Each structure stands twice: as C-alpha cells, then as structure tokens.
Fold these 4 entries.
Entry 1:
Amino acid sequence: MTQGWRELDVGVVGGGIGGMSVAIALRRAGHKVTIYEKRDFSGEVGASVSCAANGTRWLHEWDVDVAKGDPVVLKKLINRDWKTGEPVSIYDLDDYEKRWGYVYNMFHRQYMHAMLKDTALQEEGEGQPATLLVNHSNTARHDLIVGADGIGSAVRGIIGLTPEKTPSEQSCLHANVSTEDVVRLGLVDYSEDAALEYWGGQEGKWDKIVLSPCNGGKLLSYYCFFPRAVGDYTTQSWGVEDRPVKELLAPYPELDRQVFEHLKIGKEVQPWRLWVHQPYPYITRAQVALLGDAGHPMMPHQSQGACMAIEDAAALGILFSKKYFNGDIAESLAVYQEIRLPRVTRVQSAAARAAYNINERIGFSNNKNLALYNVEDEKNKLTIEEMNAYDMYKDVEEQLAKKRNTPYTEKYLQGLPIGLALPNGVVIGAA
C-alpha cells in the first residue's frame, strides 16, 4: 500500500456506461463513490455497443459478470460491396482471443449498462457499493469529481472548455431488426456470421451501412450513414419520436437488396447527431477529470467510443489505487491527462478518417494486400496491434516515475513494448 494513500469521496456526474465503469474502477480502488444522474434510465432506446479486447480486459479485471450483458462474440469483420453484397475485405478474428487475451464483445447498450450498474451498486465484490442518485440536480461536494456526462457535458463547461466542433458531412439513422422477424420472412440471417458487417466505405463516399449483432444474436443493430445534404439531423437528439422507415430507405436506391430488405422491417428508427470535435487542450482541472464523450467526443467509425471511456475509467482506477496513489490528487490527475489525451486523440483522428474510408478502420487497416486498399498516411494509420498491445499499468508507472523523479527500467514506451513492430511500419522506440 502506497504511503499516503487515503480514501476519497468521489462524485461521478453521469450514470451511463462511462459513469458506471469509473464507479466500478474507483470502488475497486477503495474509494467511496456517488453517481449523479439527471434522468432515471426509463425510456432508454437500445443500440449496439462495441467492446474490443482493450475494453473487455477491464470488465474481467473488475469482475464484471459479462454474461449478464448477453454479448455476441465477434468472429469476423466483413466489408461488403455496396450493390452486390459480396465480401470485399474480411478481417478474421479467429485467433483474436489467443493473441490479445480477451474476446471482442458486441453488447446491446441497455444490457451492457444494466450489467455495469449491477456491478457498481451490488453488495458483492471488492470495495463498498457505489450510491446512485437519479433525477438529481442539486449541488454536492466531493474530494474528486469525474465528469462522465456525455457529449453535451455540463462539467466540461464548468472547467472552462468550449468545444470547437463542426457538423459532420455525414448523417446517421439507426434501426433495430429482430432476427426472429428476419428468419420468419425468409431473409438472410446475418446473425449467423457473428460479425461486424459493413456495406460500402471503399468509395470515398459518406454512404455506409454498419450491422452489429447483439443480444446473443437475437437483435441486429443497423447504423445507416449518408451525406448530410440528403438528410440533416444535427438539431435532433436520440430518444425522440421514431422516424418513418421510408426515410431510412430513401438514401439507398442502389443498396444490396438483401440488406435493403432488412431495413424495410427496421424498428426504433432514430437519428444520431454527428459532430466532429477538435481535441480539447486539457481534460482535467483542479480536482475534476473528464471521461468518455465529455472529454473526447469522437465519430463512431473505429467502434472505440465505449472502449475509450472504459480505458479512462481504468486509468483513474489504477492511479487512485492503493499501489500508486500517495494522497496527491493533483499528481494523479496530471498523469491521467498525460496518458489519456495522446491515445484518445489518435483514435479521435482515425475515427474521422474512417468515416469515408473503411480501410482506415482498425482491422481492415491490416488488409494491405487488397486491390482497393488505400489509406491517407500508412505510418499514421491505427492498427489492432497498437490498441490491444497497450499496457496501461506500464504507461502509468512510466509517467509516475517522471513525476516522482524515480527510475523507470521497464522496456515500454507510453505503454507499448519497445521493439514492437506495428503493421504500419512503425517500430516502437525506434528513432
């Protein structure tokens, strides 16, 4: 136990996936946690959430009952031709768990949230249960505040950050399709692929369909992208009245008829506002830290939004743990910013590039042997190796050593093994 460690009284603003994750991480680290949520979670609209190995590993470390989330374990990433549906680029995940230690899970948002909430609040498990206050709008005082209040964060404004953002040139409608309905109508059952599937994205256009199975394959979650000139939803928010199915189908006259037939039976058609945020200059101030979309909103095209929030939570859990926290909140938050900002900024930038070029997407960015392969900057592309070989403990130890003027002898640089050769030609630690 680090000399000077003390229990903190932590307030978490926002009770979504990021808020519940950091509540678990800080509970496990020995702190008292109160979560404040302005809503009560009723009327939640469901969509899928991607959780690759770099997120899944922390669920296991925190002893989350992952089975409660009823995930689909992904076996492939498949990119299909826009018109024919024929596979164009496939990234096989058969050896994924063997390589990275954890599977690639696809959750339904509501099930994932319930899974995390149970872990944060239940009596069982290490640390004292977090307290959840819903429909909350009063003031409170804590040793540490974590702003996990999403893309419209109030905490962000309180610490002096004003987002520099522009509406994306891309719009999105989301729809859910029941696999039972698909089978009943004799349509192609994509749930059998256990894959994250994409139509389009090779043509440098904004049109793209993304299919992710969840709920053990019982639900197919569709994200349907098209140019903002075709339909602008920047002034609408998730959870409003469902849009008509004809509006969902209108941008896609030439889309592969197999997936088009799926969209015809889409339910809960909801708009998703897409904004491109420039990286923030800081994500901590005084005794406040931002987490997830509050600190680094990003486009969805790397499927890393939830993972980055989970990683943020893990970083705070480590930094305030009995092994590393010496009672100096300012030091811990300074290290949190130093290890998180570079990583989330890279993902943020790569997600914006992948909006119109699927070859920039983690996984497909490894398929360099394809005729259609093309990326903006080979040396700068994001790869699975960079995301999953990252060791956060080593990153924390390196940055704490600098702060405390103590030796750091591990052969890691910013959490990546020195000498690791990435598929983009970069060797970690090389000149």
Entry 2:
Amino acid sequence: MRKAAALLSVLLLTLTGCAGAGALGTGDRTLVVAIVANPQMKDAIELSGEFEKANPGVSLKFVSLPENQARAKITASTATEGGEFDVVMISNYEAPQWAANGWLEDLGPHIAANPSYDADDFIPSIKESLSHNGSMYAVPFYGESSFLAYRKDLFEQAGITMPAKPTWTQIAEYAAKLDDKAKGIAGICLRGKPGWGESLAPFTTVANTFGAQWFDKDWNAKLTSPEFKAAAEFYVNLVRNHGEVGASSAGFSECGTRYTQGQAAMWYDATVMAGTNEDPSASKVVGKSGYAPAPVEKTQASGWLYTWALAIPKVAKDKEAAFKFMAWMTDKAYVQRVAKEFGDWNRVPPGVRKSTYDIPQYREAAKAYAQPTLDGIADADQRKAMANPVPYPGIQFVGIPEFQDLGTRVSQQLSAAIAGQITVDEALKQSQEYAQTVGKSYQEVQ
C-alpha cells in the first residue's frame, strides 16, 4: 500500500506531462540520457563526442532540463516504466527509494564485471547514500555538502573576520554590514525559488540547526513549532532585508550568477559552487572567496549531503551500453578529460572519488575549497545536523516519497513569504496542514 501510495503521489505531482523524449530505436543503439542542466553536466555533454568516437555504433541523445523540470520528467518516466530514457540523473533522495520499489537496475553486477571502474574509490558516505541492501543503484557524478562562500576582500574592507565555525546569528550581522544597495551588492544570496530541491534544501538545514524538525518520532507534523517558526522567520527576514533582488525566484543558478558577477558578499549553498566561483571564464571574483562551514545555531554541524548520480531504469533496453556510458562519465579518468579539454581543474566534478583529491594539480587549483568540501561531506551526519531524533532519513530533505509534493508545496509558501505576499505565520499554518496529512498516513501504518 505504501509503494502504491508513493507511486500515486509521484504521478499526481507530474501531471504537467512527460512527453516522450525519444525511445531507443530498433537496432540503432541510441542512448537517451535525461540530465540536469547544471554547469558540470553541460561540460559532460560537450565532451560526450569522445565517448561516441570510442564506441562506434552507440550515439547519445541528451534531454537537458532545469532541476525542477528534470525531476518531474525523470520521476514520471521511471515510476510509470515509460521507457523514454536509458540513463537518468537522480540523487541520493531518489536512489534508495526507487531501488526498493524495483524501478532501477542493480548496478552491482555491472560494477563487478568492470573491476577497473573501482567503486571502492568513491567517498564512503556518497557511495552508501546511493545503495540499497548493500548494492549500488546509481553511480555518483558529483557529491556535495553545503558551505558558505564569502568575499574576503569585502570582509577585510569592513573589518570583519570570518570565524572558523560561524553561527547564523553572526552571518545575519555580517550581511547587514556588507549589504550595499548603492553598489548593487547584496549582503547574502539565499535560495527563495520554489521547489523541494531548491529553496527547501538550504532552508531545511537552517531549520535543523535551529532545533526544528519536520516530524517528531511519532510522525506528528512540527511546522508550527517555536523552533520551526524561529528558523522560518530568520530565513525570510534575512533574505528580504539583506538578500538578492528577486529572491523569491532565485535558485542555485541565479545565486551563482549573482555571486560570480560580484553582486553578493556571501552565498550559502552547495559546495559544488566553488568550481564556478573560481572559474576564470565565468567568474569575476576568482581568488577572492573564502569558504566557511555551514553556519550553525544549536547543532554541531548543519551542512547537507547530496549527490547527482546516474542510474538505469529497470525497463531500459540496452543496459550494457547504458552502464558503459555511465562508467565513462564517472570513472577516475573523467576528471583528467575535463581538465585537459577546458584547461581548468576547477571545472572537475568534486566530492565523489578519493583519488581526485590525490591529484597534485587539482589540490593546487582547489586549495581554497577542496578540504572544506571534504570536511562538509564528512560532517554531513544526521546525528550532528539535527537537535532531536526524527523518523525519516535525510538532512536537507525528508527521505519519503511524499516529500516531492509536500516539500514543493511548503517551498511555495516560503517563497510567497519572501515575496511579501503572505506572513510567515500564514505560510507555516498552511504548511502544517500539508504536513499533517502526510504524517497521519504514516501513523496509520505504524
């Protein structure tokens, strides 16, 4: 019943439609790859001709979409066994759930048949997050936690020293001092764009460290608790008073553009941002950033754990060719290809393979953020990031199927509060009603 309910939830969420992206033709060995339109993925598409050249007879067709659209399209296709895609980009939110549902190919046999792929080289926490019953069901392309990027030059000019372990209270104070509307520089950039994987990711880490939780151990919704309210008011007020213009529609990409163009003094987000910040071809602030741990309040840590990864839907027609492509895009040699082609080690997908951090050229190029990235991933532990026990897996998300819908609905309320359309109390009251419905469904099966 739980699996059926989850599937129904997925289908209701994606009523916007999932038009066919092109099926594998009879005998033409065209692999259709659904991918998120982030910078590192765009690099992979640009390099994909090398894979086709090395594998005559196999051609690649990419369906590249913004994050929210990609999630909906991939989820609908995989859940309904639509067969549109041979390879899908998913995360550690979907992988264990979809594996349990039988929607994904078990990659264990494919990995065992290719020992040079060396799955033991993956960072353990990243590998484990993509596994089910001891076997991997997706292979990571890049891994991340979250941290705070800050302009060292602006901090120095303002006479501010970033602490080794900042608190959110301190960050709000710094944002107020550094906010310079006359020069078009926001004190901080924070996501406000609706989406369970957009604004809800950074916001939930703030809620965690404020001592809040989505549900208590008995699945009672807690979105109107004093702790959750304090976190929501803090986040909304900070981004409204000292955040970027148009914050209610700003996500990872929008904040990335603002920060790299010198329009924000701080940016709290995924550690993968650092590669773009330090890319001379895209950034005006190369070498000007420091990277601090995710700010805390009541907990030891507050960074998240996330990975974009590649998986094979159970109904894919050419699983052997699909894994061959996935291995090409996630093996040890891929980082060398990126660095050689683009002449910049900062464009290498981070946070996945231990061997990447043993490459002298990468260590030198990423010296500002390599260790903070690894530290963030190591500290991304639910026991460190949350003040109270919770009945669900996940740090920046609630690891249940209903969260795609619930999280998106709550994020819409949060975004409306950031835009000034409703109050925080109104947003949380409505959000609590959504969460109670989900919580009751779990209470009924306990």
Entry 3:
Amino acid sequence: MTALYVRGGQKLQGKIDPSANKNAVLPVLCATLLSDAPIMLRNVPEITDVQRIHAFFGELGSTVEWDKQGKTLRIDHSTISPSAKATLPQAMRASIMMIPGLLARLGEARLEHEVKGCTLGAREIDPHVKVFEAFGATVSYEGKDIVFRKKQRGDGARMWLEYASVTTTENFIISALTANGSSQIVNAACEPHVQEMCTFLEKMGARIKGKGTSMVSVEGCEEFTSVDYTFVEDFHEIATFLALAAVTGGDISVRNTRPEDFMLIDRTFEKFGAHVEHADGWSRLNAPDQLVVQQNFTSHITTKVEAAPWPYIPADLLPIFIALGVKAKGQTMFWNKVYEGGLTWHTELSLFGAHTLLCDPHRLITFGGDTLRPATVTSPYIIRVAIAMLMIASSIDGESTILDADPIRRAHPDFVKNIDSLGVDVSWDD
C-alpha cells in the first residue's frame, strides 16, 4: 500500500511547467503503429502507461529509444515482423486503442477480457467492438482472450455514437485511416486531447475535418510520413495547480499555451470566488483569503458544477472542484453525468471534518467552510481523487496521510516534486 504523507498549512506560491496530457500521449503512441516512418515525440511524461507501451513495442520488435531525462521518444515500427504476435497489456485501458494499428499491420490482436483503468464504474467495450466490425474486423472470445481479426483493408464507415466516448472516437478515427474512402462519426468526443491526437495524425499525413466538433470526417490514408511532434501542456494539470493555489490561499502561475480551452474552467473557479488570469503563455490564480460560494442571480437555486463530456467541465476535473467546495463557505451541488462510481469516495472527506451529502450516485452536495483537521484517508484508484485529497490535506495545518495514493504517479510523474517546490512538505512511503 502506497502512502503519501502531507504536512500542510502553507500558502502555496511559485511557477510550474506542467507535463503533457496522458490522455493525448497514450492514443498518439497507439496511433504510431499505423506508420513505418520514424517518429519523434517530445515532452513525453515518464508515467506507468507509457512504460507499458514502451515495453510492448519492444516485444513487438519496434525500435524505440526513450530518453527519459530529455522527455523524448523516438519510434520506428518498420522493424516489426509481419509474423509478430500481439497480446495487449492487460493493466491499462489504452490497450484497446492499439487494435486498429495492429489489425492493419498484423491482421490480428488479442486483448484479455478484463481491461483495467480508474475505478469509475462500468466501462463497456461494445462501442469499440462496433467500430472494429464496421471497418471489416471480426471479434470473438477465445478462452479468456477477446480476439480481433481482419483479413484485408475495409471500406469507409459512418457511425453515430450513443454517447460521446473519447476512446471510441479515437478508435474510430484511427480505424478510418486504415480504410478505403471516407468515414464519418457523429456525436464524436471533442476534448482537447482528442483534438491533439488529430493534430498529430494530420502531421503524419491524415486528412481530418471537424476536429473539436461533434461531427468528424476522415479520409483513408495509404502512407504516413515521418513526424516530429511536441505534446502541449495537460489542461487537467494546469487546472489542478490553479486549484491548489485557491484551496491553500496561495498564488501560483502555470505555463499554458492554450488558454482558449479555459473559458468554462475559469468560470467554474469564479463560482468559489477565485479568479484566473491568462497572460504571455501563463495562467495565474492569486487566491482570496477565504473561498466563498458565489450566489446565483436566481437566489433559490443551489450553485452547481456539472461534469459531462467536453465542452462541459470534464468529469476528471470534478474532484478538484469538490475540494474547493469543501473549503469554500456555502453550499455547492456537484453533478457527475459520466461515471456512476465517481463520487463514492466522498465518505473519506468526513475524516477531514468535511460535511457532504450524496444525493444519488451522480450528485453530491458540499456544505463548505467548516474547520478541517488532519486525517488518514484512503484513495480509490482514481487519479484526480487522490489529488483532491492531497489538495485538502495541503490546506490543513498538521500531517495527513493518503493511503493508496499511487494513482497520482500514473498521470503526473513530477507532481509531488512540483508541489514540494510550491511549499507543500510531502513524502512517499512505498
């Protein structure tokens, strides 16, 4: 059990260069399987899932050079043998996005039935199966494996998703590049990391229309070019460091080259009386002495933070705003419209002395502003929840312990080093 000890109570101050978004890095790595041309990726974070993909590429026969200190990854898949076999890593959900490239390259891929990820509730793979079948693949069970096979290049397809799934959208786009003719997806996910994957694919030679919208068209591509690509900053991490400033009464600036993605995020900070400024490639939050939930003009309506697929507030950011709700004086309703298991951890907040009420699996009310105390809490395997607990602990005088805090490392290899530079005293016990 990994424990994180947090000795809080300081107003955090400083500047941070955030890492790249793992939700952009992983699909891009998977999409590189489409190409035999050399690929250079920069600002690659040293996280667990990247390590797993790196190891898998090596098992396939790819030539991969990873400079962890320089954060670069040089990839050449031309060395993969056509007779290579591919059983995908079980421990990460991103495995399923390697299937289009493997089908195009090897004609077969195997996936163990239980694919793991954050414990956010049921995540079916049926939408992915429908994508692969639409492009001519067969999908079947063989023992504990799900086996995907494709004998030849399929034709373009049109699909209307039941919900705007990020990974299903990404799998459709990657699959469409391996097909003949045009393909179109309706109700596509349009998160910044989906857009970033499309930008990378365009640099490889893909023709994609509509990225960042709910309707995306893709032309099949016969050949991909070499590309040198640098990942942009993770908007999740930018928002998280700004929230750390808010929750501790501090003053933090974070490098941010895409402030256009932050209009709604900024407005959500304003709901707690915290203001974000963007200037010269940086975003800054200089916190007020006391966070206060702002009253609606319609005064009998409780202030709400609703999380849903982009362009709503992302569900992955909801925990950090719940941390603000715990600290801010007043009541806030948080509504997770994506995951049915995304709020069950709220009981741990009571150990800090927080007052919360779970209305149903999707809605939580915080009654904030109470005096909080140090505590020992246990995080579920949800990255941003572990960080939300760290945020609250950072705002409290004394030492708190977060058990099972390892998910933080899964997405943010430098996160603890960064918060230490801001003034939080933290240490790991593995």
Entry 4:
Amino acid sequence: MAQNPPDLRPDRANARLERDLGTVRPGRQPTIGMVSLGCPKALVDSERILTRLRAEGYAISPEYGGADAVIVNTCGFLDSAKAESLDAIGEALNANGRVIVTGCLGAEPEYITGAHPKVLAVTGPHQYEQVLDAVHGAVPPDPDPFVDLMPAAGVKLTPRHYSYLKISEGCNHKCRFCVIPDMRGRLSSRPMAAVMREAEKLVESGVKEILVISQDTSAYGTDWADRPSKFPILDLARELGQLGVWVRMHYVYPYKHVRDLVPVMADGGVLPYLDIPFQHAHPDTLKRMARPAAAERTLEEIAAWRRTCPDITLRSTFIVGYPGETEAEFQTLLDWLDEAQLDRVGCFQYENVAGARSNALPDHVPEEVKAERWARFMEKAQAISEAKLAAKVGRRVNAIVDDVDDDGATCRTTADAPEIDGNLFVDRGFEGLTPGDIIEVEVDEASDYDLWGARL
C-alpha cells in the first residue's frame, strides 16, 4: 500500500509542520495528530480535515505524545492495505490512546472496532463533518482569533512547490475487483469554479506543480445534468493550462474524448503526461474484470496520442494473476506491452478484497504463479524503461527541483510524477537551487528508472 512520506506522520519529528502551522503558542492549545495512509486522494482528504481543524484553533502535533488525540486516515482497497491500516491504528492507540479513525476502511466500522474496540470514533471516506464532530467530542476546540490564522491554500501535507487537486469523488465503473465505488459512491464532480478557485489559491501560495486527481478524471463533469459542454474535463484542462504552472493529469480512463485532451498537452497547456489504468490487455481477462475489452483499439489510441504529441509520457498499472488468467492470456499482456512501449508501468499481483465480485470467480491463480508472472512482467517493463531513458542521454529536458543537499539536486522531469516515477539527479551546477525551481538540464547518464545530468 502506498503510504505518505514518513516525515508526515506524527510518530516522526516533523520540523516543517511545526514551523508552518505553529504547533506551539502561549497557553494550552488543543492538539491533533494525523496519520495519513493510502493514495493521494486520501492525502487531500487529510489536508482538508487539518485545514478545518487549524481554522478552529487546533494545533497540529508532529508527535503522538504531543497530541490530545490522533486521527488515522485509513486505506481499505486491498487486504494488505487493511492490515497496514489496522497496524497504524494499533500503533497510535499504544502511543497515544485516543484515536479517531476515518477513510476508506472506515466504511467497515465493525472490522475496525472488532480489532480495536478502544477507538473513539469511526467515520467513512470524505465524511469531513463527522470527523470534525468526533474531534470536537474528544477534544473541544479553544479558538484564539489573534493567532488562529490560515494561509489561503490551507494546510498542505506535500512540499510547498507541488499539490494535489481533487476534482471529483466516487466512480461509476463497476470493475469486479474494486470496491471503491461502494466506499466512495458514484461520481460526484466538484463545480469547475470551485476547482479553479482552489487551483488559483495554490498558485498564489507558491505551488509550481498541480497534480489533478480523482477516481476517474476523464469523466469529470459528466454527472452534471446541465453541463456547459459534453466533456467538461477538456474545458477544465484548458483553464488550468492558463495558470502558468505544471499541471499533471492522473487516473485518466482511455475514453475516446481523451484524443481531444492530448492537443492541449501538445500546445503546452498541461504536461504531456497521461496516467491511464489499463489493467490488462487480453479481451477475456478484461471482460472478467468488467472493463472495456478493446486492446487493439487501445493500441490505435496510443498511436494517435503519440502522433499528436510525440513527447507524451504514458503511465499505467496492471494486474497479473487475475482469476482465470491463463498463461496464454498473460503472454498476450506481455506482447501488448511490447507493442505499446509504455514509459512508466506499475504492476500488482491480484488480491481478493472483501466485498469484491471477483472473489467469486472460478479458477483463482496460485500465489506462486502470480509471483512468477509479476517478475516476468516487471522484467519486460524494466527493459522498456531502460531503453527509453537511454534514448534521453544527450537531450535537454526541463525539470522541477524537489530537494537540494550538499551532493546535488533531486529533480523530476515532465515525465515523472512525485513518489511514483523516477528522478533526475543534477550533480553539477546545482548551487543556489531551491525546491520548486524549474530548470533546464542536459542528461548525461541513465539507469533503469532514473536520469543524471548537469544544469545548463
């Protein structure tokens, strides 16, 4: 399970939170700790909860011991994620004793209270008011209008120079392996004006890269009964592209209208980067997943995207060992990957998830076969990545600086999303750089997933 960086957890000292949020003031201020697990969408939920609490007069504690209560924002997508969430709850209970649980796993309160009956409250995903009510009950607020001031962008758990922008909740897909729609409901898109106001505030506060997230980004706005255009994501992309910062699109399903999104990337409005969850390539496997089963048409779409925007970076995730997956079906996936030549690839071994319809499918794949197929898939994906990065040696690329130390600057190119893709390490000409700077770099070395170069 993906977990937010360790220095964002209250069990680790976090000087940035203490500096930015003012965790110490004269007198006794009620304090709350936060453990945020799971995907970037959950991280945005944590930021919203902390922003509301900070505005009400709460301080944010970077340590369990310094908190009057701890909120654990859980992940519940896979059994392994549920286990890690329960471990985090147990750790917070042992260290603090007063724990409020929220997030995706909160949709199964009996599962949580059965393992940890001493938690103060359990709320589900994006139930902000219920979380606040639970905090008020456990630790009443003590606002002070003279010091409880919030920056326009609110509390952020990411570095200052990039931020996630959630544009919708829920999903209308019915993939058999996924329970997210059961947890988070059907698609509910935020008003475009509200999204743009948040984006503008982020830019005003110094954000240099906005990462657009949702469960289904390309479906944004299609749930509106009266919408200004057939596909509002195209309008939103054009508006975001006017802000003068990097804009990166995540979780874009390959609907046909994505072809109209790619020209916005080619024109420089948003980054030429598409994160698309293909999941598999064999039509029978996709049908068992209850996903669109048109791998050949997908290859045609990829070719069309690349004709329009030759520099586009394509990222995707796949599942191997799905129930009923034969060796022939898996080989089709490998052959498809050879032809698609995706730039960034992630892969998961199938897991049963409580409540998922795929659990009832016949012919589950043995664990050792899943592991062997995963290794073969990743070997091929690594070889593709290595060849693509080697082709960048000698080229000039734009990069955003994430961190600087005595040895150099850790950066990302337009092809790299934070924490999931590779890095570009600048070991010459990095003096004077600070996080958020956008620089030009000449690439002089490449590995399987990372690049090295010199600032121009």
